[in-house]
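Question (not urgent): is this output format expected?
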Amino acid sequence: MAGYKAGGTKWRMLVSGLFSAVLLTGTVICFICDAATSGGLTWSPVPVSSMAFGWAVLFPVFALEKRGIAVGLLSLSVFIVPYLFLLSRLTDTAEVFSIGAAMAAISIVFLWTAAAVFQYAGRTRRAVALGVTFLCAVPFLFAVNAALSALIGEPVLDVWDMLTVFVLLILALVAFLCDRAGKAARRH
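Got this back:
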């Protein structure tokens, strides 16, 4: 067991290091290309800030074992608003922040809800947790639509939303049926 854990740690360190190296390489390439084509830094701060944000959110997921997802969610929760503000300033588009912050708030609540559902369900009831998460996605879909309707006049519901709700309900049913089949198989 100790060898497996050490191998897992080495694997996580390798993936984390490669992820960091790829983003650092992308950052350097963006700066070089921007400087070479425009004589300064004009467009490169946008992808570079996005790569930094992505690294801050995903590095803990890759690097940490059990706490990685929780730390990644915490990082997302902390950095999303400053990131959207910075992106809004870099692109000189106020809607990036105003609309993005509203969507981010709803999305973060959904992600924390899903994480709590999976934490509560434990390892033996992952299919149930998945089904509950699909069901929870339905009211969050309506929350996103209501916010977009208030912010940009988007209709609260359209045919694609109804199709999405239908698919989410089917996926929840399949997850619950898989859990039931798994329980039946374990009993026999």
